[in-house]
Amino acid sequence: MSALTIAQQVSALHQYFASNKTRSLDWRKEQLTRLKGLITDNEDKIYQALKQDLGKSEQESWVSEVGYLTGDIDHSLKHLHKWSKPRSIATPMVAQPGKSFVQPEPLGTVLIIGAWNYPFQLLLAPLIAAIAAGNCALLKPSELAGATSSLVAKLIPQYLDNQAIAVVEGGVEETTEVLKQRFDHILYTGGEAVGKTVMKAAAEHLTPVTLELGGKSPCVVASDCDLAVTAARIVWSKWMNAGQTCVAPDYILVEKGFAPHLIEAIKTKLQDFYGQDPQQSPDYGRIINDRHFARLSQYLEGQQVVYGGQQEAGERYLAPTLVMAPEPDSALMKEEIFGPILPIVTLDKIDQALDFINQRPKPLALYLYTGSAATEQLLLEDTSAGSVCINDGMMFMANPDLPFGGVGNSGMGHYHGRWGFDTFSHLKAVMKRSTWFDVNWRYPPFNSKKLKMLKWVK
Ligand code: NAD
Q: Is NAD included in the keywords of this UniProt record (predicted)?
């Protein structure tokens, strides 16, 4: 799409929003139902595209993309009426007789920029929230997941209201052009550096942003955890999508004496899940492209690999890999890994995990495996993270009533369920006063008696 047509496209979306068509609950419900049809009618094509882009298995694609999205649509359809109703608020004595409420209203035309690792889910989950809230939307899928990007660009116009929802495909050049336009909100999913670019562009138009970024999500394993379940859940959450998950555990923090037990348990689970040779497993994914493969391969240079490490560049295959005691200032421990390498950082005492976490940027997710309520409380009270999951990895994503988003360097704002509805709504404050009673204390001419009465009712 040329620069001119991107500008025209955005202008057409703004005009359509002004027609008020998208405000009606019937329109929103119809679009959400059609979006569900888009997904269910084309399930096999979606699986094929995800296999082509990331070597994802059908089950993984269902859990993290297709099933996730249809569940999100059902949840939104079920609650839409309630979410969109005026929300009653108490009115203070000074404003009596009167009533107050919050009236959610759509923002207008929003931009949704997706990332490549869950290329279908990360583009369409924000769209569900944007439609539920009654907006027009422009979608920009990630060019790195090319098969999914073209499938989305082909299907959206076939199923959804073309005047309200549009797709622009492309990379940096097209996104830069898109970002020159004025939107009423931008939700961006991706890395920190581009997040800054998006925020700068948005500032030109004073457009609010939701930035769904990443970072290094620590996983603290205390020696009083349930070892077998802990290992299974770490392996599931780390090696899904070959570790290319924003909320995957990035590294483990564990006491020295317990580390060998944990490593053995993780190895056992890896073999249970992916067999002796994960390269042959249909359930194990591949790295998105050669650049990311080379980046991950470099992380392993000079590291003490205690399991895995096998690579085949032609296939972009990197085995599930465990690295023991990496140097804190190595690239592996400074950059977000976003791949199938799990470093094990050992501590003398598990309490040292708090300092280790707090000395680094605030993570998107933080995991703790423990049987102790006191350890749990300590971590919850003394650290900060976008989300915390105790005794599991990324299962918190399965609860649509929990907000999803980062804090500090891991992002700003949130979505999922009603949180997404609210992100794409303006929560308009409304007060309605009655006129049958009108005390004159606030009106000039002022005197000490009026002031005394005001102080009394405040
Ligand atoms: P990416 O390369 O797919 O980029 C994301 C989007 O930004 C794409 O649509 C891309 O076209 C666009 N883009 C890239 N460069 C640009 C530029 N210079 N100007 C404007 N737009 C540009 O994805 P990525 O950044 O490699 O994604 C990986 C990161 O995303 C990781 O840090 C990961 O943790 C994070 N992530 C976060 C979430 C979340 O929900 N919080 C989900 C997935 C990924």
A: yes
Prediction pTM value: 0.95
CA of 445 to the centre of ligand 1 (A): 60
Report the nearest-CA residue for atom 17 of ligand 1: 172
Distance from the CA of 143 to the center of ligand 1, in angstroms?
A: 10
For the domain made up of 218-398, give the CATH fold.
Answer: Aldehyde Dehydrogenase; Chain A, domain 2 (3.40.309)
Return d(Cα 335, Cα 250) in angstroms, integer: 10
- Cβ of 191 closer than 6 Å to ligand 1, yes or no, is yes
CATH number belonging to domain 3-213+410-430: 3.40.605.10
pLDDT tens readout for residues 348-394 = 999 999 999 999 999 999 999 999 999 999 999 999 999 999 999 99
Cα separations (Å) of 387 from 73, 280, 383, 390, 399?
Answer: 22, 34, 11, 10, 12
Q: Specify whether the CB–CB gap between 362 and 330 falls below 8 A.
A: no
Catalytic residue among 136, 219, 225, 246: 246
Of the residues 212, 225, 255, 389, only one is catalytic, namely 212
Cβ neighbourhood burial of 340 (10 Å; 0-12, 13-18, 19+): buried
Name the residue ranges covered by the structural domains of the chain.
3-213+410-430, 218-398
Complete DSSP assignment for 128-146: HHHHHTT-EEEEE--TTSH
| CB 217, CB 388: distance < 8 Å | no
* Ligand 1 pocket residue status of 176, Cβ below 6 Å: yes
Q: Is the CB of 127 under 6 A from ligand 1?
A: no
Name the nearest CA neighbour of 254 among 329, 322, 332: 322
For residue 37, how far is its CA from the centre of ligand 1 (angstroms)?
Answer: 27
Q: What would the pLDDT profile of 178-193 be if each residue is shown by its tens digit?
A: 999 999 999 999 999 9
